[in-house]
Amino acid sequence: MNQQSRPAPVQTEGVTETLCRWIVSLKGADIPAEVRREGLRTFVNWLGCAVGGARHETVDRALAATLPFSGPATSGVLGRTERLDALHAALVNGISSHVLDYDDTHLKTIIHPAGPVASALLALAERQPISGEDFLTALIVGIEVECRIGNSVYPAHYDRGWHITGTAGVFGAAAAVGKILGLDETRLAWAMGLAATQSSGLREMFGTMTKSFHPGRAAQNGLFSALLAEAGYDSSLRAIEAPRGFANVLSEKQDYAEITEGLGTRWESALNSYKPFACGIVIHPTIDGCLQLREELGARVGEIEAVELRTHPLVLELTGKRSPRTGLEGKFSVYHSAACALLRGDGAPTAFTDEVVNLPELVALRDRVTAVADPACHEAAVDIAVTFADGSRVTKHVERAIGSRERPLSDAEIEHKFRVQSGLVIGDEAAARLLDLAWRLESLADSGEVARMAMAG
């Protein structure tokens, strides 16, 4: 290849610098009203999920291991009575917010953005006063950072086996806390470097308690990264784009324009979506379609002989557990989810308990569900065919499921989801008061008030 035909080298210098300069210079008033509104919806949804997951055995076990080593008890565990130091509270609240797999999703990358960021911020808010307005600004900043970094390496990074909520989430938490701490550009770049060197999370863990550990650890590590940087603990200033930095080590794809272009005009945080069903997002079209079929079929549900699904290959890659044994495994079984939606009309957290996953009647129908991977089928679509004992068939096509950007949850639907799951933990009256306070976040002088109200009485 001669000199003239050789492609121009990709300019990677300054990616981390550009991102940090934007974070430092951004003012709350620079964020459009509609983006702030989506940020508030994100917070409300996250808070309901964190309280709703508080009594899961995963959280019990995390606390049993954590409590003996916690420092000064400055920060509460949402939905519970325990208090921990800020770093451990960020960890446990991040676990709790994700353990039901009911939290928000940035559909372009399958990142669950709020868990790492909001968990870190709220733990810090009990350690030092943060106004609700500043809290929301920092939350949006953190989500923007993690989703842009996720965009730059997706899907190669995810396909390699990294759980992108953990790997990108740590950057979001560090950025959000760094914004609150008022770090300058150099210290914020150090925080990004400290976050990058702690970026981890493996997809192998899906269906186990460790999946929810990823956003919890990202929250804890991101918070710690910013605190270290504030104390003058240095790192590389090019941790994202350097030849041995995050993007080049953890991914075969590096599209740095996704990080730096359109900062302040293109808002990834405005694209967030909220789950109506408590399981892997790629199952949602199947649950949506099976719930519709249940409504249409009535008593004929009991006559189902076979269920056939045509899905995108990613659905079976992520949620192809044929015979789940636990509730957590059930969240990654399209077969269980289809059977449960048809037989019980359920896609909420109650559909994914150890008891329900092993119900004989559900197992019997699950064993009659088959799935075919078809690359021509969109990731967000599904074709369902139900065959009855008499040989007759009905079909259902779902182009986009409820909860998608095309069919987003309304404020009322987010509120209903909040009340149902958090009411089971702290009681209906307390859940209603907490919901009202969460919607008023921007007006609060001290956002830590939310954490204190979210504790179990």
CATH class of the largest domain reads: Mainly Alpha
What's the total count of β strands? 6
Spatial order of the strands forming the largest sheet = 4-3-5-6
Order of helices and strands: HHHEEHHHHHHHHHHEHHHHHEEEHHH
Distance between the termini: 72 Å
**How many strands, what sense, and barrel or not for the largest sheet?**
4 strands, mixed
Using only CA atoms, what is the Rg? 22 Å
How much beta, percentage-wise?
A: 5-15%
Could you say what the CATH architecture of the largest domain is?
A: Orthogonal Bundle
Structural class: alpha+beta
Low-confidence stretches: 1-12
Question: In the CATH scheme, what's the topology name of the largest domain?
Answer: 2-methylcitrate dehydratase PrpD
Spatial shape: globular
Helical segment count: 21
Helix content class: 40-55%
* CATH-assigned homologous superfamily of the largest domain: 2-methylcitrate dehydratase PrpD
Structure, explained:
Helix content is 51%, strand content 7%. By secondary structure, it is α+β, with helices and mostly antiparallel strands. The protein has two domains: 15-274 and 421-453, 2-methylcitrate dehydratase PrpD (Orthogonal Bundle); 281-398, 2-methylcitrate dehydratase PrpD (60s Ribosomal Protein L30, Chain: A). The protein has a four-stranded mixed β-sheet with strand order 4-3-5-6, with helices on one face. A two-stranded antiparallel ribbon has the order 1-2. The longest helix is centred in the N-terminal third of the chain and has 22 residues, at 132-153. It comes from Cereibacter johrii. Residues 17-257 form the MmgE/PrpD N-terminal domain. Belongs to the PrpD family. This is 2-methylcitrate dehydratase PrpD.
